[in-house]
Amino acid sequence: MPDVRTVATHCPYCALQCGTQLTRERRGVSVRPTDFPVNRGGLCQKGWTAPALLDIPDRLRNPLVRRDGGLTPVDWDTALDTIATRIDRIRRDHGPDAVGVFGGGGLTNEKAYLLGKFARLALGTSQIDYNGRFCMSSAAAAGNAAFGVDRGLPFPVTDLGGADVVLLAGANPAETMPPLMQHLRTAQLVVIDPRRTATAERAALHLQPSPGTDLALVLGLLHIAVVDGWADTDYIRTRTTGFDAAWQRAMTWWPERVERVTGVPVTAQRQAVRMLAEASSAYVLTGRGAEQHSKGVDTVSGFINLALALGLPGRAGRGYGCLTGQGNGQGGREHGQKADQLPGYRMITDPAARAHVAETWGVLPDVLPGPGRSAYELLDALGTTEGPRALLVFGSNPVVSAPNAGHIVDRLSSLDLLVVADFVPSETAQLADVVLPVTQWAEEEGTMTNLEGRILRRRRLQVPPGHARSDLEVLHGLAVRLGEPGHRYPTSPREVFEELCRASAGGKADYAGITYERLDAGEALHWPCPDAEHPGTPRLFLDGFAHPDGFARFVPVEHRDSAESPHGTFPLTATTGRVLAQYQSGAQTRRVAELNEASPEAFVEIHPDTAYRAGLADGIMAKVTSPRGSALARVRVVATMRTDTVFLPFHFPGGARANLLTSDALDPRSRMPEFKVSVVRVEPVQEA
Ligand code: SF4
């Protein structure tokens, strides 16, 4: 397909998936926002500068194979033959589970689907998971338990425009997805965040709990809602089950106790509940701050319980939702690249699900492996006697983004074979034995599913540079070399999408009625969309929840401490997050000059009193040390920080990686690592 002059597509970065139009000008590619509902003519810094990604100097253009310690350019046949030969040997010596696959939440739906199929059929491995496990797996588990299905926002973003009050728990959209804020312009915001973020600055009420205590706080909010008479008893009776058990747990979380545990004053707790309960239109939204904990699922369940008690979910103009982060964080978790799931959001242990997917793939159900390890457990097992000896990474950079990153580098370095498919030489690619240059964003066709469960077309403006190929072609080439019939791995995105839709039919995320033609004709299609006449489902749960009885479930939860608590050697708690100008591991945005200029280096935010006690001053370099490692960051003294907490962004590489510090304690259900609570000490370092 040749270059075209202009295309309507979407931003390459976050889950808002702002609408853009790209045009090839004499001086390069220009971007302008479209009137797409989520951004309505707005873009953030990242969206405005996205065309620079098409012209980055160190763009991968040729396959690379490690020889004599260095990565050497080779042709595609050599690269793919090398991988297939080494995989064959590893599988012969150690079995199919000796090869693992690590996917990404930025991959198109088509890539995510074909990657899952490739892993289960061509490799025959159960060992596949993806970086979305680090993103919103806790919200997904809690949403499934409460509502019977998980879709980030079960309503369109534009519904928020009519809200009187929105509670944001651990979400900072003013920095992470600024165009969303136009929908919150008229709402009063209640923000729960240990930091005074850009979003908290705009809030009518900011609750600033100690990190790791959100669950105690929300149990207290439920307590107030019930005791002060704000609970919607008719709604609880007619639309939910399990209230009594959830209330039993909240009973002992009276406001004064909550204040002692969280630091949030009683008056602020009462005001938050009153604001939500008195509003004629109110929403509760969670983000990573509430979710990335070893009790992340319970914490999100706590917020859903509060929303249910106030009668919000499944009613027009009200609701609960999760602000998904990665570009295809929603679609990425629906099509089979999760360790425990098959396409259509089906559980891999469900015999009916296995039979349906096996039939779509033309194999017997017994051929499909069972569940594998979750993302961190997969990375942690690499190179061990029980774990994979080879890993194929598509669209992810775990050297920077995984928790306890120093340990993960050790594990990656112990592999017999590391293959990375990416369009930039990421920090993980630099460790690889084979690097495969693949297409990005404006060089490919496909679909993405945004945070509203709306399926969007990604369109190609221009051919990729050098010898870069689409990931679909890479998977086809590898599968054939591993002895699979080529027709099982189409290279056309449209063909893969059609198969994906068939595989999803009847599942929770049902795409069966969606086609490229309908999307190209401008239809706004949110799943489920089970047939060609179906208009899609922008609002879920209005007629009942997705459990067989149609009722939502209260889930009883109890507060517990984080995996580690500050003590003499590590007296502070570090929490991590994003800044406006950078995205995820920074592998893309650190290569865009304007973004790097806006946010060039790692920093650590610290309260003035804490800084003084540690001998730190604004602007000097500090060493932040946790039980797992140390990271360097420039000190920012911030008066609004809690005295017991420091904050670091996680976008920066090398010795500035915040994830050198982060805890690898996992939530028992979602297997989400505890990125948001790590004990640390901070001390000055001399700059050379
Ligand atoms: Fe892109 Fe997200 Fe910024 Fe929109 S908010 S321009 S999708 S990064």
Automatic annotation (TrEMBL):
EC category name: oxidoreductase
Ranges of residues in domain 4Fe-4S Mo/W bis-MGD-type: 4-56
Keyword Metal-binding listed: yes
InterPro entries to which the protein is assigned, alphabetical: Asp_de-COase-like_dom_sf, MoPterin_dinucl-bd_dom, Mopterin_OxRdtase, Mopterin_OxRdtase_4Fe-4S_dom, Prok_molybdopt-oxidoreductase
Organism superkingdom: Bacteria
Keyword field contains ATP-binding: no
GO molecular function: 4 iron, 4 sulfur cluster binding; metal ion binding; molybdopterin cofactor binding; NADH dehydrogenase activity
Pfam families linked: Molybdop_Fe4S4, Molybdopterin, Molydop_binding
EC number in record: 1.7.99.4
Record key words, sorted: 4Fe-4S, Iron, Iron-sulfur, Metal-binding, Oxidoreductase
SUPFAM superfamilies in the cross-refs: ADC-like (SSF50692), Formate dehydrogenase/DMSO reductase, domains 1-3 (SSF53706)
GO CC annotation terms, alphabetical: membrane
A Gene Ontology BP annotation from the UniProt entry: respiratory electron transport chain
Protein name: Assimilatory nitrate reductase catalytic subunit
Organism from which the protein derives: Saccharopolyspora phatthalungensis
